[in-house]
## 1
Amino acid sequence: MGGFFSWIIAPWFLASLLTKDLLSVLSDTSGKTLFWAFFFGLLWGIGGLTFGLTMRFLGLSLGMPVALGLCAGFGTLMPPMFSGVFVSQVLGSTSGRVILLGIFVCLLGIAVAGLAGIYKERAMSPEQQRATIKEFDLRKGLLVATLSGVMSACFAYGLAAGNPIKSLTLQHGTPTLWQGLPVLVVVLIGGFTTNFLWCLGLNIRNQSGYQYFSPTARKTAVPYDETIVETAIDAPSRELVEHIPGSIRNAPQSVPMLANYLLCMLAGTTWYFQFFFYTMGETQLGRFGFSSWTLHMASITIFSTIWGLGLKEWKGAGAPAMRLLSLALLLLVGSTMIVGYGNYLALRH
């Protein structure tokens, strides 16, 4: 339900409100452009689905750096390479080389954060690991994180593929600041499609479709002492009952439907605003707009690591891991400053 607001309602509403002739712009866009923006959004949706599994197996503090490191590298560097401007605009200018240095420092910081996670894994017993991350599995988590990072970078490809849409909406009189909003409409439809089909499959598999309409939760047949080993297509709804005592779990429960729908609306809309503001910032970076992806990934890694610390995921990790984690945060903050300085140099010239 949150996805309806984040991928459909919020993008269409704000694009209709802030841009000119949205439907005309999209209808005038070539089918090839619409297809690639949608297709990369579809692949990005796969990255989002596997991202959740990454968090389950590795936790926030380790899962975020690994997945986002790959996402940052692929998402930042591949668009200018495919468009043929990497050598001329990036390597061929002082500002471009400074930005490239910032991207390298960002990737280095993310790698150090991942190394800190490995030290943490070595320092903690399996029991300690699962006390904070119940399903911690380094090997499985790294494999899923790799898939997630590569697929998640497709969002940046989708934005790059939608550049002709930006040109059209500007021709229709849309202010420069909002030119990316029509592109988001198309890319997010792709992400919505992947997630909608996935969730529909889960609703059918788990017979949970009634939960959208019923104010009463049904009894579950899951025994209290069953060890639930989820696969990638098991529903999160099974997790909700895992720690509830059997006598309570098997009793009908009242569900606050209105509050749940309002919270889904709030969560989905809030999620959308990350890319709403992202496209705004990208318009201010000129020909080095691709570097905004690095800033986005670095910021996510910084704050997710702080959340991981707050959630005690690093309790008992040991001094070496904590020192590496501190170094990673310094490198990530430094990378945003370097990238910012590179864009400042570009704007001066």
## 2
Amino acid sequence: MAKICSEKKCTVFISDTHFSDDYPEIAQRFIDFLKLNMSCIETLYLLGDLFDAWIGDDNMTALSEKISETLAQCADAGMKIFFLHGNRDYLIGQKFANACNMTLLNDKTVISLYGKKTLLMHGDLLCTDDHAYQRYRKIMFSSFMKKISLMLPLNLRKRVAKKLRKASQDSNATKQITIMDVSEISVIQALEDNHAELLIHGHTHREGIHTLELTHQSAQRMVLGAWDNSQGNAIIANEIDAPHFIRI
């Protein structure tokens, strides 16, 4: 388990933990990491797909209760927690956010990360070469469809979510890998539109650091990888150390 060794309070970014009852060890590693470093982490940003699926705040399970209790404990200890929706948990609402004592963010949120203007995204909006997914996203993530989805009986929502997940897996199996990655043009456009010099996102599960040349400056894109039952990853930064990856 990674212990953050620093005299300075730090900011941590995590994405794509994909918590589910099938892999409880992933959630436990997340919980252990936060408890071990509770006094060191000043701010925690969760950049989407915290859960492998979320069909509504009224579908709390033992696992989601455990996660919300841990996050609330961290918040009570002084940690500031922010959450940005992913494509798997876009139905997380204010009720769950309140239980976790975390603040919901919009996609394309800009922060000052120790003086560095930083753009935060989940990442799926940048996969603009996947036209079918972008059409699907525009419909399903609309306020109207979210409202309709949450009006359905819970059991029906569970069946629909299972079918949609299966359809997504079948569709992705036939797509070229490059189509499901981000478009460099879209990345550069997002950075320039938001006057940012750093972009942090997840979604693609392709952990790495990329350097880009914008019109008036260089910029970086840092991609968080997905967690699995053997390890996780995070990006950490403080007043002294530039953003970098750690293993969890």
## 3
Amino acid sequence: MLLLISDMHLQENRPELTRAFLRFVKTEASQAKALYLLGDIFNLWVGDDAMTAFHKEIAAALKALSEQGTKVFIMHGNRDFALGQSFCKQAGCTLLQDPSIITPFGKPILLMHGDLLCTQDISYQRMRRVLHHPIIKYLLLHLPLKIRLKIANKTRQISKSSTRKKAKTIVDVTQKEVIRRMEAHQTTCLIHGHTHRPAVHHLEIELQGKKLAAKRYVLGDWSNQQGWKITLTKDDIQLSSFNFNQ
């Protein structure tokens, strides 16, 4: 069994969420062969050198999980794209490229954070290309910590305000891009997060000249009371929510 989660947005001022995540890692995730965290693990990440006791506690929990036999894989999100190898070493996890293909049971599955699929949000995609450019990223990570935090908080404020003004269709995925990515990676299964719109979508793609049924699984974000997960077995893929109080 594999478990996939995303968009926990962990932060120090949400202790209920942190406790729920740590409990999930210690209990349910420990029963899985692998745990995949598909981005936005943290609500903000300005560099591995800015890790606090809070971040180290999360890293230690993931390290303990990996040491007891569950492989841990992490993908960048739009909030924590600066997360680096230092954190991964402390957390005992492997950093995945976005997108990535896995074949746990012989059939390819495409994993993404999901923001690359939102091609109608032109201003966001433009900003993403700038921030992810290796030179820009290097320069940002070598600024003084106070300046990085100031830039990150200002960027979040602008992004939040801008998102509220955009139509829901603009900040959601583009079906054409979903199909393009799936056909390019030769897969009928895509799993992603980012949009905070949990659902299972049925679509049709063309592979090797044949029209095939395909599915897109969207993970939900975690609140203070509820989380979302995908359970992947040899015979089934299940998207489900779970209450933290149960």
